[in-house]
Specification:
It comes from Mucilaginibacter defluvii. By secondary structure, this protein is mostly helical. Helix content is 71%, strand content 5%. It is built from eight helices and four strands, in the order ααααβββααβαα. The radius of gyration is 17 Å and the shape is globular. The relative contact order is 0.16.
């Protein structure tokens, strides 16, 4: 690994830059289709940044990644095929290749959110693990509230009855709690600000598309 690629400031700069460019690309009708098409590549880039930034990328880290990836994928499969989690919805084309009607990138997205939130809760200095889990889950619900209108507009997914059910947010809270509990049980040492920056930048990105879509 080239040493300068591991510098947190450089990685933070890349995260912020790509979200600024993404905001403009999504907001402008002339470039919207292109930026929808490259969403999966953006998620893979963010995954690469998180991997590079993590201290001690070992089998334990990859085990955590796989658990969250498949837990997220299975949760979404249950939601799409039964409505028992989140409600009745279906994925569009923006998140890329689907298997069993679930985008392969959705597991990556769950990992990015859970990892970034887990690290942020530790950086916030909360001593009680259950407070970290509950506050982290609430933060992830807040992010989903910002994501939902944008996701519908840009063909990430669509709700069957054209309304976002409250049940979706309830499920997001408890699924997020479970995944953050997994994060806590892996006992990663305190990480740098790259993960939290990704989470905060995503919140600003989706808030901006909701409030001021250009």
């Amino acid at each position: 690994m080239i040493p300068f690629l591991r510098k947190p400031r450089l990685l933070i700069f890349v995260i912020v830059l790509f979200h600024i460019v993404g905001y403009v690309g999504f907001a402008l009708p002339a470039t919207r289709d292109l930026f929808e098409a490259i969403v999966p590549f953006h998620l893979l880039l963010m995954l690469g940044i998180i991997v590079v930034s993590h201290h001690e990328v070992d089998n334990r880290f990859w085990s955590f990644y796989l658990i969250i990836y498949f837990a997220g994928y299975i949760a979404e499969w249950i939601g799409v095929h039964t409505g028992a989690l989140f409600g009745y919805y279906a994925y569009g084309s923006t998140l890329g290749i689907k298997v069993l009607n679930i985008p392969l990138m959705i597991g990556v997205n769950w990992f990015l959110l859970v990892y970034s939130t887990g690290v942020l809760m530790h950086r916030a200095g909360l001593k009680n693990r259950w407070l970290r889990i509950v506050y982290g889950a609430l933060l992830m619900v807040a992010l989903d509230i910002l994501i939902e209108p944008v996701a519908i507009q840009f063909d990430y997914w669509h709700w069957r009855f054209d309304a976002i059910p409250v049940y979706n947010y309830v499920c997001w809270f408890f699924v997020s709690m479970f995944m953050l509990l997994v994060f806590e049980n892996f006992g990663f040492k305190k990480q740098c600000w790259v993960g939290p920056t990704l989470l905060i930048t995503q919140m600003v990105f989706f808030a901006a598309l909701n409030i001021y879509p250009l």
